[in-house]
Design a protein that fits this description.
Length: 292
Amino acid sequence: MTSASELRSGKTHKDENFPVASWIIHPRHRDLILAFYNFVRTADDIADHAELADQAKLSYLDLLESELLGQGDSQPEAVNLRRALAARAMPPRHALDVLIAFRMDVTKSRYETWDEVIHYCRYSAMPVGRFMLDVHGESTATWPASDALCAGLQINNHLQDCGKDYKALNRVYLPRDALAQAGASAEELGQPRASAALLQCLHALALRTEGLLSEARSLSAEVKDVRLGLEVAVIQAFADKIVGLLEVRDPLCERVHLKPLDLLLCSAGGISAELVRRIIGRRTAAKPAPRA
């Protein structure tokens, strides 16, 4: 078989909607995070490959899994992640969970309900946040807020790319019941602009995603690692800005991705707010109790 590396789309960690192993994260974690990213990106590109047959995609995903588990050394992304995890005595469970989502991408092209989409996010997005928390030694008590943030990021991406996913992959992540309730159909995603009904559906889904992001807002305060807290605050700021665009724009014909200036301003705002919160929090904690 061709190496999975040769099937990569060319997308890197610098092309994502959120920072990956940015300068904010401590250098001791970056190699492991990038190894995880490259494994996930390779598997994602295989699932989305325009020319591979479905069975070939599933075979490649199985090969990546088997080599991640130590059964072979032909796939660099799997071998590199396996070794990086072993060096930290970490299990591969989060990477294995993500592979479940990519197999779903190959075999499932429509979702009936919001709950089905969230189930997909349980494997496509939530393991990424859980992995980051495990890398930093955070408590599993942080997982619910992280899950909400990761699901929000994933659905933001679904809404941003809904037209492209339909045209290139015949894949629709908009729930059928939400489309039906608005009087829209998946086939309208192939048009140059959204109909009034489809736009109503997209905006309603964006509003529901905003609710997920609200559930995630406590995460930066819950994590103990200061650098990770700052990174989470930046990611939250990106997600909030994107969902705001999705609530008022048509992703079929209007820009719903952040510009470089948006990224800079969101990063500065997120870092500043989190630093102030942590400084004030420390001062409050250090303040002596009043005398009786």
